[in-house]
Design a protein that fits this description.
Length: 529
């Protein structure tokens, strides 16, 4: 018996070749693409074929069409890691007799060959008896089987698509119990976290079919069953009449599938059926196991991403702390600016995503100062024009640092443009009005306020009442008026802190000493940082 394996992955070809050659009755031929495989089919008698779906040059669907022009009785099994209903229908129309969803166990190969050859024999028999009633019934049975196969592929596709879009652990567990109920006949589905000793089971997500409520005694019984029968992590399938543990309960069938992370049991997905008209099957066990494996990949990837992100942010913020350590007058400046910006953002109705961007950008808005020489950054007196031009490069340097680390473009924009002015006289790009990113406009007000409310090497901090007067008077010129309005509201509510201590609004009628408004202009020493 000659078996042809077609796949562009050399490792898969080697694994198939080693496995099939271990069976004396089989000879194995391999091809890396559809073109090479067709040549082998022309020059050899092929009895059975496994082919990948997605290959360069000629894909699996086109190969099946071509090879069946040479021999329309050749059984072909498609292997794919991303099954979809469209692919399933297209391949079935092309004459494919079965699917294998990657990853799969090699033991499935032997079973697939036997099953397909049996189907092939039935198919030949049905062709001979197609005018007889018996032949017609068998063909209908095959059609139902193919229809069930498409339904199975649709279920797998739903699992892959929905789980891959999950963004939080709570959402993931809620999704798992809901999907488990959708693809099985479960009356209830639960996900339990388990301790290292496999003794404590904590339900963190549950799903009940409409009109049915959970029974606390059922939860206790399930946890007792898990403690007794899940110690080795083997999936559990229980049916009424086959398992004495179900006697005396309202449960007719139970399925329990562990979710493992790095070979350790993290939790268990449990489904129960109370209606005797339906029981769990081995297929349900397969689907739930597939879903849990996919979920474990998502959890591991999310944890890895979160760890990388936190380490990266910690490294970047260490740069900011190093910059602030160079100048004791600006210590904790970035943290205060971030707090002010988030307070303003909340007042303006910013979304959670925008507040996250403000949190990230606020802490790192001055990271570009790492490229400014100390003789300029720490100069106690007024800056020359040339020195001020150097200071004005720090937003660009900061945006480039963030960009080189492969982070999103939005953070770069906020950092790059936090010194732009509403009237277009800011830097580095002279943006004007609403062309300035919205979050940069918020950061600009928060940054200006803290710069004036803090001691600097070249001056003492400015009184609060005078800062508020200057910010209000520069609305519409340096600052976005809407942002200033929100800032003043937050200030009046006492949610803005001057330096490191909270302050209260100035008493009514208190007048500040006059100060030239050019202190807030482009070259203003009060906000040169």
């Amino acid at each position: 018996m000659n078996i042809l394996v077609v796949d562009d992955d050399e490792m898969i070809l080697e694994i198939f070749e080693d496995f099939l050659n271990s069976m004396d009755t089989r000879s194995v031929l391999t091809a890396k693409d559809g073109v090479e495989a067709l040549d082998l089919c022309r020059n050899n008698k092929i009895d059975f074929c496994f082919t990948d779906l997605n290959m360069p040059g000629m894909d699996g669907i086109e190969f099946v069409k071509r090879v069946h022009q040479l021999d329309n009785t050749l059984p072909v099994v498609v292997m794919t890691g991303y099954p979809s209903a469209d692919n399933a229908i297209a391949t079935l129309k092309s004459g494919v007799v079965d699917f294998l969803v990657k990853p799969f166990k090699m033991e499935e190969i032997e079973l697939t060959i036997r099953r397909v050859l049996e189907k092939r024999a039935l198919f030949v028999e049905n062709v001979l008896l197609k005018e007889e009633l018996e032949g017609k019934e068998r063909l209908q049975a095959l059609n139902r089987e193919l229809s069930d196969k498409i339904k199975d592929l649709k279920a797998l596709n739903v699992i892959l698509q929905e789980i891959d879009w999950v963004t939080s652990s709570s959402e993931l567990f809620d999704l798992i119990v809901r999907l488990a109920a959708e693809i099985t006949a479960s009356d209830e589905t639960h996900f339990y976290l388990v301790d290292e000793n496999m003794r404590s089971w904590e339900p963190i997500a549950s799903f009940y079919r409409k009109g049915r409520e959970g029974d606390p005694s059922t939860q206790a019984w399930i946890q007792e069953i898990l403690t007794r029968k899940m110690s080795d992590g083997t999936p559990l399938l229980m049916k009424d009449g086959h398992d004495d543990s179900l006697s005396g309960t309202q449960i007719c069938s139970l399925v329990a599938v562990p979710l493992k992370i790095r070979w350790k049991i993290f939790g268990v997905l449990v489904g129960i059926i109370k209606d005797r008209s339906a029981l769990f099957t081995e297929k349900d066990l397969h689907f739930l196991g597939f879903m849990n494996r996919r979920a474990s990949f998502v959890i591991e990837n999310a944890a890895l991403y979160e760890n990388i992100y936190q380490n990266l942010f910690a490294t970047l913020y260490a740069f900011v702390e190093a910059i602030e350590a160079r100048d004791p007058y600006t210590k904790q400046h970035s943290s205060r600016v971030t707090e002010f910006a988030i307070s303003i953002g909340r007042e303006m109705g910013c979304s959670d995503e925008q507040l996250d961007l403000l949190n990230f950008s606020g802490h790192l808005h001055d990271i570009g100062k790492i490229g400014i020489p100390d003789r300029i950054l720490l100069k106690p007196g007024p800056l020359t024009d040339d020195e001020y031009e150097v200071i004005k490069t720090h937003p660009v340097i900061g945006a480039k640092i963030i960009g080189h680390l492969g982070l999103m473009a939005e953070e770069q924009k906020v950092i790059r443009h936090h010194h732009e002015r509403w009237d277009g006289h800011g830097y580095p790009d002279g943006l004007k009005g609403e062309s300035i990113p919205f979050l940069s406009r918020i950061l600009a007000v928060a940054d200006a306020y803290d710069a004036m409310a803090s001691d600097r090497a070249y001056r003492k901090k400015i009184p609060d009442e005078l800062i508020i007067k200057m910010v209000r008077e520069n609305a519409g010129s340096q600052f976005d008026s809407e942002v200033v309005r929100a800032f003043l509201k937050v200030y009046q509510k006492g949610r803005i802190a001057s330096g490191v201590t909270a302050f209260q609004p100035a008493p009514c009628g208190l007048k500040a000493k006059s100060m030239p408004l050019n202190t807030l202009q482009v070259a203003a020493p009060v906000h040169r940082y």
